[in-house]
From TrEMBL:
Residues 6-71 form the J domain. This is Chaperone protein DnaJ. One of its GO terms (molecular function) is ATP binding. It is found in: Cytoplasm. Residues 135-213 form the CR-type domain. A zinc finger (CR-type) spans 135-213. It comes from the Bacteria. The J domain is necessary and sufficient to stimulate DnaK ATPase activity. Zinc center 1 plays an important role in the autonomous, DnaK-independent chaperone activity of DnaJ. Zinc center 2 is essential for interaction with DnaK and for DnaJ activity. One of its GO terms (biological process) is response to heat. Binds 2 Zn(2+) ions per monomer. Zn(2+) 2 binds at C165, C168, C187, C190.
Length: 373
C-alpha cells in the first residue's frame, strides 16, 4: 500500500491558499532541501522530488481542482500518468529556470544577451583635495570596444542579416538531461549569441564591435574620498552583436595636499606656532579648502599637540548637505636662531621663573626628586 503525503501539508499551506502563497511556500521549501546544498543526500533528493510533484499539481488550476476533489486517486490508473503528472513527471528544467534562475543569474534577463554582454571597465581618476571638495566635470579618454560602424553592430556584411541559430532556436543556450537533473550550457554552434553569420563584416570579423578611443565627460560629485567608486552605467565595453554594454567604474584617488590631510569629512592641519604666541596667545591664518582665509585664534598657554576645532570648515558631505570640521593641531616650535638681544631677554625671564609658570614640569621634577630620595 502506497502512503501519499498531502500536497498542501507538504508545502505548508492551507487548502484555500492562492497561487502567490503556494509559489512562495514552494520556493522556500525547495531551497531548504535542494540536493546540491546537502551533498546529494538521497533523502533530500526524494523530498525535493516530492515538493516538485506537489507544486506541479497545485500550480495548475485543472490539476488542483482534480486533486481537491479526488486526492491522489485523480492521477492514478491513467488519470494523468500513474505516479506523476502528464505521464512525464515535472519539467525540472522549467522549475530551475523560474525558481532558481534569479540566484544563478544576478543580472537577470535572457541567457543570450548576458553571454554577450560587454565587459565592465575600470578607470583610476586622480583629483586634488580642492577638486574632491567642490566636485568636478572630468573629461577622460578610454580605449574600449565600441559598436562597429560599417555593420552597425550586428556583425554581418552590408545588407546581410544574421540568421537565427538552428541548434538553440535563438536562445543562445541548450539543455541536456543528465540523470535526475537538466543541465544548461552555452550553445556550441553560436557560442551563446543566438545567431549565426554566413557573411561576416570584414571590419569586425562578425563580432559587431571594434577597438576605439572614446572621450567621456563625467560629473564627479562634491565630497568624494579616496577609494570612492563611481558607476557610469552603459559606458563600458560594447556587447557582442548589439548585446548590452558593460559599465564603467571610476575609482577616485586623492593627491597629497601641502597643508591638509583628510579623515572622512574632517580636515587636519599641523600648525607650528612660536613659543611666545603659545605663551601669550594670538592668531594665525590658514587657507580654507574653499579658498577662504580662516583665522585660527590661539589661546594663551596652549600646549604643543593640543587641537583646535573649527566647525563647518572641513570637506563637503558626499550626497548630502553641510561640511565637516577643520582641526588645527598646534605644534609649539622652540626657536633655534636667537639674536643677542633675544638671548638677553630670555635670560632675564629665566631669572624671574618660580616654577609656577610650567606646572607640568614642576610636577615632573618633583616626582623625580621623590624617586631619588
Amino acid at each position: 500500500m502506497t502512503v501519499h503525503i498531502d500536497y498542501y501539508e507538504m508545502l505548508g499551506v492551507q487548502r484555500g491558499a492562492d497561487d502567490k502563497a503556494i509559489k512562495a511556500a514552494f520556493r522556500k521549501a525547495a531551497m531548504e532541501c535542494h540536493p546540491d546544498r546537502h551533498g546529494g543526500c538521497p533523502e533530500r533528493t526524494a523530498k525535493f522530488k516530492q515538493l516538485n510533484e506537489a507544486y506541479d499539481c497545485l500550480k495548475d488550476p485543472q490539476k488542483r481542482a482534480a486533486y481537491d476533489r479526488f486526492g491522489h486517486a485523480a492521477f492514478q490508473n491513467g488519470g494523468a500518468g500513474a505516479g506523476g503528472f502528464g505521464g512525464g513527471g515535472p519539467d525540472f528544467s522549467d522549475i530551475f529556470s523560474s525558481i532558481f534562475g534569479e540566484f544563478m543569474d544576478p543580472r537577470g534577463g535572457g541567457g543570450r544577451q548576458n553571454a554577450a554582454r560587454g565587459a565592465d571597465l575600470r578607470y583610476d581618476l586622480e583629483l586634488t583635495l580642492e577638486e574632491s571638495f567642490a566636485g568636478k566635470s572630468a573629461t577622460i579618454e578610454i580605449e574600449t570596444m565600441a559598436p562597429c560602424e560599417p555593420c552597425e553592430g550586428d556583425g554581418a556584411r552590408g545588407a546581410a542579416v544574421p540568421d537565427r541559430c538552428n541548434t538553440c532556436g535563438g536562445a543562445g543556450k541548450v539543455r541536456a538531461q543528465q540523470g535526475f537533473f537538466v543541465v544548461e550550457r552555452s550553445c556550441p554552434t553560436c557560442h551563446g549569441h543566438g545567431v549565426t553569420i554566413a557573411d561576416p563584416c570584414p571590419e569586425c570579423q562578425g563580432e559587431g564591435r571594434t577597438l576605439k578611443r572614446r572621450t567621456l565627460t563625467i560629473q564627479v560629485p562634491a565630497g568624494v574620498d579616496e577609494g570612492t567608486r563611481i558607476r557610469v552605467a552603459g559606458e563600458g565595453e560594447a556587447g557582442v552583436r548589439g548585446a548590452p554594454n558593460g559599465d564603467l567604474y571610476l575609482f577616485v584617488h586623492l593627491k597629497r595636499h601641502s597643508i591638509y590631510s583628510r579623515e572622512g569629512t574632517t580636515l587636519v592641519a599641523d600648525c607650528p606656532v612660536s613659543f611666545t604666541t603659545a605663551a601669550l596667545g594670538g592668531s594665525i591664518t590658514v587657507p580654507g579648502i574653499d579658498g577662504e582665509k580662516i583665522e585660527v585664534k590661539i589661546p594663551a598657554g596652549i600646549q604643543s599637540g593640543e587641537t583646535l576645532r573649527l566647525r563647518g570648515k572641513g570637506m563637503a558631505v558626499l550626497n548630502g548637505r553641510g561640511r565637516g570640521d577643520l582641526v588645527a593641531c598646534i605644534l609649539v616650535e622652540t626657536p633655534t636662531r636667537l639674536s643677542a638681544k633675544q638671548k638677553e631677554i630670555l635670560g632675564q625671564f629665566r631669572e624671574t621663573e618660580t616654577g609656577e609658570e610650567c606646572p607640568n614640569a614642576k610636577s615632573f621634577f618633583s616626582r623625580i626628586k621623590d624617586a631619588l630620595g
